[in-house]
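Fold sample X.
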Amino acid sequence: MHELQIASNLVQAVIQAASGYDHVQLVEEVHLSIGRLAFIGEEQLRFCWGAVTDEKELLKGSKLIITKEEVEVSCPSCGYKGDLGVKEDPLYHYMIPVFACPKCSSDVEILKGKGITVNNVKLIIDDEEEE
């Protein structure tokens, strides 16, 4: 279950980012983009996020807001730029990406759709001056 490791890494990244601000009380939301080729189970990641943040006062109760990043490839042979094709595997009943150009079947370069990006972190900050 690599979602647990991803959630743990995200927690560390968010804590580090939040440490750059004064008077942070709470992390309310973490906005992520997950590429279709990252093969991350969204529900599993949410579950793991809840488990690893439950004991972190700064992150307890925070929400993951996830958007999917579409795949974009480029073909050096014919110049195609766009999405990958997919084929259904009847043995496993799921879709498999085809890593070849849909126009000429050459190898393609993946431009986007395989990463995980933290786009935004919503923080609750106590901005009252201490007396």
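Fold sample Y, listed below.
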Amino acid sequence: MSPLSRRSFLRGAGGALLGLPWLESLAKIAPASAPAQRLAYFYVPIGVVRRSFFPGEAEATVPEGNQGNKMKSIFIPKLQTGFHPLELTPTLKPLHRVKDKISLITGLDREFQNGTDVHAQCASCFLSSAAPFSIESSAWPLDRTLDQIVGDHVGGATPFRTLEFGCNSHRDNKESIYFDNISWYGTGHVAPSIRDPRKMYNRLFGTREIQNFRNITDLVLEDARTLNRSLGYNDQQKFTEYFDSIRTIEEQIDKLDRMKGELDKTPMPEPTAAYLPRGEYIRLMGDLMVAALQTGLTRVATLMVGPERWDTPFTYDSLFDNPVTHHYLSHNQTKHVEDLERLDYFHMEQYAYLVEKMDSIIEADGSTLLDNTIFTYGSGLGDGSTHQYHDLPIIIAGSGRGQLKTGVHYHCPEATPLANLWITQAQAMGLPFNRFADSSGKLAAIQS
């Protein structure tokens, strides 16, 4: 058998490529280096219900009605700057099994540029955080996003410098690209996300005979069996688990395709995609992202859970009797606050699922994929009804190989720019950053 390393690939007769996880037996052939650091983002649209997300706000006033673009602030109890006990509020409870590996960062702000839509700006500018009116060629304060900049620095040795995942299965183009993309090569140049699980699967594990949609593990099975006989017992178990996870992804893709096919045959008041189960869809795209990070196909990825201000509804698994529109609910918060809280909890469950999955994947030095990743949950709005851009909901899972503190709640000084967090994360990924967008400095307090 020819020498293999963690970045090696199994290649089948059909031209299939399948990245390998780290295996101890292969390290004896080619010694493994320290695990690579990864950077990933989980973007949730339209903010959160503050009283259930933020510690100390359980008694805060629920905003009334549609606030339009007025961005009125709601009552927010003042926290002292610094560290606080990490309280798992109702929305954060799905994270209880990984509490010691997450951090809650509160008090981060962005500045809104007047004259452009609130929702489009909060999504498209989330990872660029350019200062208002600093980009003369655009109506949006939109510049090259952090994921692309980090990808430039760390992506040279990976097949994909960055990967962009999206969970908007609709094709009705209700809004412009600014409402539905968080990754940008530069002003006016979107890094388009892939929203179809099969298309992403084929991009990651593609074949030269892609039109046949042959099973990737069938294509490489003979090579896999040959390799598996050379592995120790523990690696055989890990190898089997890895192949099973790829099999599961394939089966889920087939299941959703069959479901979509049946729905296409049935007259429905909404587009077919409105009836696809959101949880399965988001987790499937997340599984693909984790597989890409695990096998070294990329070190930088973004996952946008849903679009901003989109009036075509989605089916949220078992939460509601019929498809619902997140944006509509957010503008009727007093009437639908409990529905919105359930929706926030649902999104947190999907994030927690991926965090736990990352934490179950063992790397070369005995650490986990999560330990070597900075995986950020966030939204461009602090509240979906008032459209406020301050005190954004931000969670960080993983420490980026010990670069960031975990198991803490840190409240930033008043008017701290979100870009300060982006500088801190870029530095943790090895970039020589001292300034980014509208930053005023790094968040030294959360660095280890």
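Sample Y note: The chain has one domain: 9-56+73-384+409-446.
Also: The longest helix spans residues 233-264.
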